[in-house]
Amino acid sequence: MSTGRATRRDRGAADATALHIRWMIRRDMPDITAIETASFEYAWTEDDFLRCLRQRNCIGMVAERGERIVGFMIYELHRTRLHVLNFAVAPAVRRTGVGGLMVGKLVYKLCSHRRQKITLAVREGNTAAQLFFRAHRFQAARVLRNYYEDSGEDAYQMEYTPHEHEWAAFGGAPVNRLARYEDRE
Ligand SMILES: CC(C)(COP(=O)(O)OP(=O)(O)OC[C@H]1O[C@@H](n2cnc3c(N)ncnc32)[C@H](O)[C@@H]1OP(=O)(O)O)[C@@H](O)C(=O)NCCC(=O)NCCS
Fold first, then answer.
1. Residue with CA at minimum distance from ligand 1 atom 42
2. Residue 164 pLDDT more than 90?
3. What is the pLDDT of residue 68?
4. Tens digits of per-residue pLDDT, 40-53?
5. Closest CA to 28 of 55, 67, 1
6. For residue 132, how far is its CA from the centre of ligand 1 (angstroms)?
7. Fewer CB near the terminus (10 Å): N or C of the chain?
8. How far away, in angstroms, is 153 Cα from ligand 1 center?
């Protein structure tokens, strides 16, 4: 007979499959590089990841379901913005909201760090990613000509600026005294 209350054991089982986001650690690297090579034609190597993560302003996070890493993102902290350098979800779990959860985390980080916007570059040919970021209220801000050294492809710079209601929990939007410097970062 069901008592209608989850036992400690049930709750443990549910937690084991819950999707959550945490800091990336060195031990995650094989799972991350597997997702990376399954996601990109010009994939980062493990060295590329490690070199990037050694930078003081560079942060890596993973999305994990149970013990399994299902996505990751790497971003840089600048004075007025967060800039996403790498972002991918394991092919087998795409269109299940993992990418959306990672964007939600970025928006939380943006507002709690009192920065103005999230920026990223998407390859011109990567329509799926453009549609994904557009579905999450990113807007194409400009074309970056010959942006990629590997293929010479153009990129779209996409940007996300939070709504007033997203700032509300953090005491309102910050005043951007650095706006005129931000493109020099
Ligand atoms: C782009 C990517 C991160 C999306 O991750 P995801 O976990 O599948 O995204 P979500 O499930 O949160 O998708 C949310 C919404 O985004 C849109 N979207 C996501 N993928 C899409 C696609 N392939 N085509 C069209 N719309 C898409 C949809 O509106 C989707 O909602 P729906 O599934 O209810 O229709 C994933 O496809 C991926 O890793 N791609 C390869 C790596 C990559 O291109 N990274 C970005 C580099 S800039």
1. 88
2. no
3. 95
4. 999 999 999 999 99
5. 67
6. 4
7. N
8. 21
**What six digits make up the tokens of 66?**
């149970």
Sequence length of the chain is 185
> Residue 40: which region, alpha, beta or left (left: phi > 0; alpha: psi -120 to 50)?
beta
Q: DSSP assignment of 3-45, as one string?
A: -SS--HHHHHHHHHH-EEEEE--GGGHHHHHHHHHHH-SSPPP
| Token pair recorded at residue 92 | 């087998």
For residue 51, what are the CA distances in angstroms to 1, 2, 66? 56, 53, 28
What is residue 178's predicted lDDT score, i.e. its pLDDT? 54
> 36: Cβ below 6 Å to ligand 1?
no
Sequence ranges of the domains in the chain: 10-182
Q: Whose CA is nearest to atom 33 of ligand 1?
A: 95
Architecture label for domain 10-182: 3-Layer(aba) Sandwich (3.40)
Q: Which residue has the tokens 């890493």?
A: 69
Half-sphere exposure at residue 73, Cβ-oriented, CA atoms within 13 angstroms: 22
Question: Which pTM was predicted?
Answer: 0.89
Supply φ then ψ for residue 118, to 5 degrees: -105, 135
Q: Is 92 in the pocket of ligand 1 (CB under 6 A)?
A: no
Residue 154's SS3 state is: coil
